[in-house]
Amino acid sequence: MTDEKLYELCKKFGSAVLEARRKFAGLLPEVYKRRLYEKKGFSSIFEFAAKLAGISKEQVNLVLKLERKFEDKAVLRDALISGEVSANKLVRIVSIATKENQNELFETVKVLSNRAVETFVKDVKRENPDGFLKPLFDQESMHVHGLKLDKDVEEKLLEMQGKGIDVNEFLRNILKEREASIEEKKKEIAKDQVRKLNSRYIPSKIKEIITEEYGTKCSYPGCKNQAKILHHTQRFALTCRHDPHFIAPLCEAHHEIAHKIDAKYVQKTYG
User: pTM for the complete prediction?
Assistant: First the structure.
């Protein structure tokens, strides 16, 4: 047997084990209600789960707690009971789950990895009007939240402000000039992308302008993770072009979300 064949068998059986454990875990709330574990000679549901399926006490408690949490959310409760979605995924969405959004959440979590689900939940919370985001500039002072200025730059800005110069307008003009410069470069690059391409390789000049525009972090609003992938917001398979207007750097989690969830999730950000 080759290494590759052995690895494929490990993945196959491992996947079957995980699916079986999910389905077993989904039965535990009913086992607990009927006290079936006592009828079969087990001292507790924890012993029942451990001996029959190797499931820990913590995992049993999690499943029982989730079943109660989703009592009024039939779609998510059924996902747990049927084993279609693991408890480890479902627990991540408890804080945002409602009767109204349960269908959408179910479709979301069943296709995403645990890491991507965590990122998705953070995004949902961040977009809440009553969320925790603070304004970048405090209008009462020159203090900038989370922005590190070199001492000489801070002193110059304070000096300008002391002279009655509108520092905000000064910075806005600089930012507008930067944006205009980047847009001009992107237009020039886009001209070379008129013809359709066969290669998915993104030319270095496009990578450079994307880095100039977005820096090294994920471009999804509020995400501070390192960008790992250049994502085509217009699918390359359809356009066969590397237009810098439709390329954005994403972290691995947001890239997974962009591809596995309905495109509307990223369209609201990238257009």
Answer: 0.73
